[in-house]
């Protein structure tokens, strides 16, 4: 018997909230594993995502989608490139947390939706609505303040925002589901990751061994924490309107910001001005999205 729409909505909201909550609390995991270098931790994340991703694919009966994608050269090429892009995103994020730059990571995911709009203008020839333009200007001012008065260019924020935008744009060009796509991306990255881990183990620098069972278990968890948020996000995307997902996406960077405060990162006056402008920009952007959503015909806003 099919579920009643309110049940679908509730499931979608819970799944979306879970996904963004998990992404928001990521700094805790990377702080617990900061004895492992970022590059090695990235390799564990890729390697252990493969078996866990395979379990999810089996549970969701999606191996057929994987098989179809594997026989399409264009799909494979795009997923190979998108895999490299998301690996860069993961690596920079791990480095940001381990080097006490959680605020910059949070900033990157706050401005990500605005960068996405910019890509639409530059690549797709879309026109900015007035409030979108205001939001982009405010965000630009905020980043400029951190650059000019904070004493450094927030490259972590920019790389995270741009790489995740490129990743999202590329995945929209591929007709494959989130989980099958992620599995194939990690397949592309799997061999280099395994070779890298073997090298770390041979050097004797890795903490993944019988002498550190608790820590080794934490490294294995890199797989589930990579796959589970995307699994819940995939459920939410099929049950919620895109505008609702758009509002939920700010849960992640908000929690990350609070994590930065919890871990005692230095919050300067430049940070305060920067985040002030970014939060106003996000508010303007969200209001514009809500207003646009309300004006759409019902047929255009059915859950996907």
Task: Briefly characterize the structure.
The protein is mainly α and 304 residues long. It is built from 14 helices and no strands.
Descriptive notes:
This protein is mainly alpha-helical. It has one domain. The protein is built from 14 helices and no strands. 40% of the residues are buried. The C terminus is likely disordered.
List keywords for this structure.
about 300 residues, mainly alpha, about 0% strand, globular, disordered C terminus
- Biggest beta sheet attributes: none
Low-confidence segments = 298-304
- Helix/strand order: HHHHHHHHHHHHHH
Radius of gyration: 20 Å
Based on CA inertia axes, which overall geometry fits? globular
Strand content: under 5%
How many structural units, i.e. domains? Answer: 1
List the helices and strands and how they pair.
Elements: H1 5-24, H2 26-32, H3 38-59, H4 63-70, H5 73-98, H6 102-124, H7 130-148, H8 155-172, H9 178-203, H10 213-220, H11 222-239, H12 242-248, H13 251-262, H14 269-295
Helix pairs in contact: 1-11, 1-13, 3-5, 3-9, 3-11, 4-9, 5-8, 5-9, 6-7, 6-8, 6-13, 6-14, 7-14
